């Protein structure tokens, strides 16, 4: 019985490696140099598949992978039925925030009840956030480079991920509101958890013991 773990290249892969190691699993090929999408591990019954970060929940939900690691941002935008989320792995930490140009008075716009144009990849989270605040927004869906939207006049504000703040600074934007902290979670296919419990349960337990506070 083989267990398939879905990861995205970059920070999720890098930050999941120590957790895998704690579970006795070592990925034996480097995704940055290999062109392979299926990577073997030192365990013949465990393999890693490389998918886009936003595709991890889809792979796990439909059984293309038994488990995976996905950001809370990605999970909130995905319809999570069939997905078991047993652990917050506390990796790939950042926050979801509202940012604007420095010369846009966000507080005043909110206070006056103005309609604000907001560009974002995270329309579900943004819609909920502004509805909770009672702020009227026109949401513009983008798939990347959100920082460009206020600079070109496409939008007044963006909802994006912020970590060090250097991307915002480099584009002369300011963080005007924090929406929520973000980290990555382990997601498990519910049917696989039953059928492959002998392999999956010890893995989940090992991950849990290795989570850094
Ligand atoms: N600057 C950051 N610092 C820490 N964690 C981050 C940062 N940016 C994103 N993340 C987290 O890491 C996850 C993966 O980010 P990554 O940049 O690898 O994918 P992506 O480019 O957002 O997704 P996709 O490739 O599907 O468009 C995100 O879903 C988020 O939870
Ligand atoms: O506050 P910062 O530390 O600048 O991080 C924030 C940036 O990180 C993410 O992008 P991306 O995944 O492209 O970031 P990366 O360049 O670190 O990969 C996010 O969409 C922001 O643009």
UniProtKB/TrEMBL annotation:
Belongs to the ATP phosphoribosyltransferase family. Short subfamily. It catalyses: 1-(5-phospho-beta-D-ribosyl)-ATP + diphosphate = 5-phospho-alpha-D-ribose 1-diphosphate + ATP. Catalyzes the condensation of ATP and 5-phosphoribose 1-diphosphate to form N'-(5'-phosphoribosyl)-ATP (PR-ATP). Has a crucial role in the pathway because the rate of histidine biosynthesis seems to be controlled primarily by regulation of HisG enzymatic activity. Pathway: Amino-acid biosynthesis; L-histidine biosynthesis; L-histidine from 5-phospho-alpha-D-ribose 1-diphosphate: step 1/9. Its main location: cytoplasm. Residues 52-207 form the ATP phosphoribosyltransferase catalytic domain. Lacks the C-terminal regulatory region which is replaced by HisZ. The keyword Ion transport does not apply. The keyword Repeat does not apply. It is found in: Cytoplasm. Keywords: Amino-acid biosynthesis, ATP-binding, Cytoplasm, Glycosyltransferase, Histidine biosynthesis, Nucleotide-binding, Transferase. This is ATP phosphoribosyltransferase. It is an enzyme of class 2 (transferase). Heteromultimer composed of HisG and HisZ subunits. CDD domains: PBP2_HisGs (cd13595). The gene is hisG.
């Amino acid at each position: 019985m083989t267990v398939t773990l879905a990861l995205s290249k970059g920070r999720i892969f890098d930050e999941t490696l120590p957790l895998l190691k704690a579970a006795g699993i070592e990925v034996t090929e480097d995704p940055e140099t290999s062109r392979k999408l299926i990577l073997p591990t030192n365990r013949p019954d465990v393999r890693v598949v490389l998918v886009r970060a936003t595709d991890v929940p889809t792979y796990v939900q439909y059984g293309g992978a038994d488990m995976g690691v996905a950001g809370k941002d990605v999970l909130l935008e995905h319809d999570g039925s069939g997905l078991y989320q047993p652990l917050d792995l506390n990796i790939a930490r950042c926050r979801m925030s509202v940012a604007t140009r420095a010369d846009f008075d966000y507080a005043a716009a909110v206070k006056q009840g103005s309609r604000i144009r907001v560009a974002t990849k995270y329309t579900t989270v943004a819609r909920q956030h502004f509805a909770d605040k009672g702020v009227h927004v026109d949401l513009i869906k983008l798939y990347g480079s959100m920082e460009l939207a206020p600079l070109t006049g496409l939008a007044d504000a963006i909802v994006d991920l912020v970590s060090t703040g250097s991307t915002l600074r480099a584009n002369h934007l300011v963080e005007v509101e924090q929406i929520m902290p973000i980290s990555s979670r382990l997601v498990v296919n519910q049917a696989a958890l039953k059928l492959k419990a002998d392999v999956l349960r010890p893995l989940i337990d090992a991950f849990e013991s290795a989570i850094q506070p």
